[in-house]
Amino acid sequence: MPTTNAIVYGKDALGALPDVMARKGASRALVMMSGSLAGSSAEQELRVHLGNTVAEVFSATPQHVPREAVLAAADIARSRNVDCVISVGGGTQIDAAKAVAMCLAADVTDDAGFDRHRIRFTYPNTFVVPQVPDAVVPHFAIPTTLSGAENTDLVGITDMRTREKHTYRSPLLAPTAVVLDPAMTTTTPDWLWGASGIRAVDHAVESILSAGSTPVSDALCTEALELLNTNLAHSVRNPRDTDARLQCLLGAWLASFAITNSGVGLSHAIGHQLAAEFDITHGVTSAIMLPHVIAFNARSIQEKAQRIASAFGRTIHPGITAADAAHDAVRELVTSVGVPATISCAGGRRDALPAIAAHVMLDHTISANPRPITESDILRLLEAAW
Question: Residue 52: CB partners within 8 Å, gap ≥ 6?
């Protein structure tokens, strides 16, 4: 289980951060923030609350957390003698902060260090998960999207030499505290908010479909889908509606908490590699792949699909299976928030698909998929999504 021990949520939640940090003895922070947020009202608001606690702002982490950016940020953290990290942004910034904390604890200073600590997976169920030393600095996460990365102990870091995204995991890497303040999301670009909401939907759907699902995770994800179905499209069109934004943040929280226990599956595994290869946001990869993955798994998931369809408010009619209803509900939500739904529309290259299929077979998240999978199956899914 993650070691997150405080989640503050609601309007003006950011005001609680100084007290949360003080309880952890944190007084010198490296802030990981996207370039679009650096210098914005979000940074100004953070500085109003934290003042000199902000030792440095690092805003040069590209999408998908390249190793080089993590090493640069970790070097700054060491030189500034920080005792904590703060992430402000989406999944990239949150994972980057986790990665910096890992580098500081494990003395990772080069590619070999990353290779020593990444998860190794052989299909169908062989895992090697290296340990991370105990001396991990506190991480305080302030999400501005619905990626849900703030609620997991997983980290995705991209090796740019091979264009592969590798995963790292330890309960010690979960953020120490999370602040869900809807006001911090109002400047997030509409397309990014909508896409990240589809990522949260993907978390919930794949948790329910997972071979590791439980009644508890199913209940969390059912509520998450209801919240997101009700509020996501509205909150894209009305970014100043902080009530709707807060409901989406809560939905993302429920879904990401569930996947920590249940795991995800094939949509995520393919999405990790599509994102790393083509520099596509994970929300877009979810929009592209999740409907295809539901269709691929249809024969194995009818009972589970009924739960998904019901959460979207769908009634099953004669001639329409539960999997069909779940598939159609996801497709319609993707369309309503205006997210690209094909690899070609998202800027991919068809000649790269075979290599991506091979990389997916090494991604440990496919182990939870409810139906066995082969590299040929993956390639057919990629072609269908082209």
Answer: none
